[in-house]
Every structure is written in structure tokens, then in C-alpha cells.
Design goal:
Length: 322
Amino acid sequence: MTTTTPTAATGTQKTAGRGTSTAGRVRKRLNSRTATLVSIVIALVWTIPTFGLFISSFRPEDEIKSSGWWTFFTNPSFTLENYQEVLFGSSSSSPQLASYFINSLAITIPSVLFPLAFAALAAYALAWINFRGRDWMYIAIFALQIVPLQMALVPLLKFFSTGVTVAGVTLMPAWDLADEQKFAQVWFAHTCFALPFAVFLLHNFISQLPGDLMEAARVDGATHPKIFRSIVLPLITPALAAFGIFQFLWVWNDLLVALIFAGGGDETAPLTVRLAEMAGTRGNEWQRLTAGAFISIVVPLIVFLSLQRYFVRGLLAGSVKG
């Protein structure tokens, strides 16, 4: 015993020393001038198209159709007519994106909140409540992530249009929704598609919370709802924000699900549907497309920048223990 313990301790110290030195070398390489230069180049390449889109959205129609956006620096000219026409134009050919912007918000916000709420509850139950079949249920939820979205569109559409009937017994009637009521179908579809990944992400986060903290709460008489509300929710805020950003971007930029379940009418169509119609077959309305495209990315940028610190913490949570 007296000879084995120092040897094990020495081996552990050597392993820790090698791990520390490796991490130090990697950190030094990432902080080098070459790495900094590469990062700057990647950032510029990633940002230049967006900057060009922003410049083009303020250029007059004749200039945007006759020259590239970079000629703005030699012959600068601004106009707000593109945004005025795209948002509030009165002509029949005008995109009138203001109403579609509201539709996108009406689709996106509930489609983010619903899976967040359901997934947080499910993840807590799968992580801290013992019941029969818990592990198998978690495996089944994890496996649902491999189901392609396109395979579920037809069954869901049939579910909405005909309901559920088993052996001649109607378990659920057809939804028969019209106009703004079709938003419920889009919320349901996005929630179903998002739940497997949301449960998986939040479960990994919640399961790593200290067990002593949960046990102390139970000793004090706290029930599961009390523990979830007072302890778990404040601690998983970074994970909720990380998934919320992902889900917001997915739903806001979605075209397929919204077009199938909400239709392309003015009452329910989101921005993506109208932008696709603006592109047309020839794409000759460049001045409208640039303004409309930049309007569509403003809200995701605001959401990401406002929740960025939570997003980074949520992605890094659980990567380091101790």
C-alpha cells in the first residue's frame, strides 16, 4: 500500500501535467498571429455579403440594376424608397411586407415557447424522476432526431385534414381551421419537430446539476414542481437561451412547413413565403429583394446579439467539470 499509492499519484500528476501542457500549446497556437489573421479573414468573408446587401438596399433602382454595390463608394447615393415600397407600398405589385412580418412573429414566438416549456419539463422528469421505462423513453426520444422532417409532412397534413380514426371510431376529428386559425397547425408541427433535440439538449444539461442540491431541497420538503421552478429553471437559463436561439432561427427562416400548413395567403404566410414570391422566375426586382431580405434578417440578428452571452454559456455548459 505504501509503495502503490505514491506511484498512482505520480502517474496521475504526470497525466494531469501532460493534459495541462497540451492545453497550453493549443491555447498558444490559437492566440498566435497566424490564427488571428485567419480569424479576421474568415470574419470578413462572412460579413462582406451581408454588408453588400445592406448597401444595396439603400441604392436607387437604376443604379442597383446597372452596377455592383461596391461602386457606391465612388458614387454614393441613398434612398429610402425601397424600404417604403417593400413595407407599406400601396400598389398591387408591392410586397407589403409589414403584414407578413407580423405573421412571422405570430408563427415564430409560440413555436419557440411551446417546445421550450414541454422539453424543460420532460428533461427534468427524465433526469431526476425515477419511473419504469425512463431510459427506454429517453432512447426513443433521442432516436426521433433521425426522422427526416419531410417524411412527417404528409402524415401530419393527413392528421390535420382527416383526424384520427381507429376501427371506425373517431378519436380526434379533423381540425378544419381557416385563415389565422391555421397558425395552430404550424405551431404544432414546429413543436413536434423541435422536441426531440430540445429534450436531448436540456436533459444533458439538467442531468449534470449537483445531486446534493436536489437532495437538500427534498430534505427541506420541496416537491418536484417546487424544485423545478425555484432551482432548475434559474440554473438552466443558458441552455434554454441556446436552444431558443436555434429554434428561433430555424422557424423564422422556415419556408416549407409554413407554406404547407399555413398556406400562402396574406393572412397566414410568413416573410419567407413572400420573399420567395418576390424572387419570381426572373428575379428582376433586385431593389425590393435586397430591402426585403435585410428586413427579414434584422430580427434574428437582434435576438442573437441580445442572447449571445447566454448562447455561449449554454454551448459550453457541461464541457468542464469541477
